[in-house]
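Backbone geometry tokens:
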Amino acid sequence: MSVAHRTETRRRPEGIAGKARFNGIAATLQQLVNVGAIGLFSIVLARAVSVADFGVYAYAITLASIGMAVGMGGIYGLGIKSFVDNPERGGQITTSIILIRESFSVLVYGAILLVAALSGQDSAIVLNVAIAGLAVFGKVLDVPDLWFQATMSAYISASVKIVFAVAFFGCRMLFVVNQGSITDFVWLLAAEYLCTSLALYVVYYFWGPKPAFGRPAARDIWTLASQSFPLWLSSVVNQLNLRIGVVLLQVLASFEAVAFYTAASRITDVVFAVPMAYATATFAVLIGEKKGTLNEYRGYLQRSLTSACWMGILVGGVIASSSHLVVPFLYGNAFAESADVLTIQALACPFIFMSAIFSKWIIAEGTYWMSLGRYLIGLILNLILCFALIPGLGVNGAAIASVLAIAASAYLFCFLRRDTRELAKMMSFAFIDPAVLIVARLKQKV
């Protein structure tokens, strides 16, 4: 893509651009606060309990996190797209998504209990997993957030989530001071997601569409469920891809290894949440660009991928260069092994950032099964590498496997299909795009 072409397609209506930026900033800030609160609490808890106890907490929370992502039934970007395409039927769409998500959640919760029971852990650990899994039912209720995202008013739902994240962080600190048990903290997790979602419904009722809810037609439920099924499967595989290292470390190593891996992951989770939040909040713009000319659409994608790539490189470089200072400062010397894990995980930043754009492109294009294919390749590679590397390299082996799996699913996969090779070229060009622009402008001056 030429410099002139990218310059010509850089402009879009200022009103839409302004709302998109504000929407993206609001959603990103909310994710930073939420994930930051979780990360900060993990640091406090890691210093307050033994490494093994922290590993138990991390194991229960990890299974719950997988369940929450999977329980949303693949209806996130697809839900936003439905609200954008059918604004007059907001209430019906809301009810349809609630029914689909909660149905998925029952299956997911059963799977979480099964994994905990079959892992050979004692009853106390299984109980913690069962309680943490209740968070799934609360998390998937946040359907109003999709409507606020679609209408470019994410600041409303973001404000609600920030208030409850801060409030429950304060509750957790009180429990730490009073030496609460691991089970107490797990209960607080489930309560936070339920209370946050209920508050969102109160706000949605007053500021959302009228009527806020509606009787969904069987056709609506079937259409959403069938379209979301490949996305649901892909979210299952993606979460396994992202979290399988924790599960296998518990099986092949120890809860201490789980603790070291999770301590590093809490830092990268904050970083990885940013591009996905921004891409989701600006997804309505991508849909709008697709309705324009092909050149404008491709120009928008190239700019987005370039920005994502270099933001990832910058952030990853900062994390990698400071990991051996940050980890001891945050967690103490007992978690020194987490520093190397964090350095390795930082290498995934450019691919994670571009993957956020890729995920939304798949939904905009309607090629939902593609999402499953790319994550499946990453998961297979991750499993092979984990079994090969963990016995010899321990926690660092799990980190290496995760980074290579992310690169495979976010970037290398695009070279395997004819319909994604153009995107693969854009991602490749993103790494050199700034240099090309600089050289072109220098030539213009000469």
Remarks:
- Residues 1-14 have pLDDT under 50 and may be disordered.
- The chain has one domain: 3-445.
- The radius of gyration is 22 Å.
- The first helix runs from residue 3 to 8.
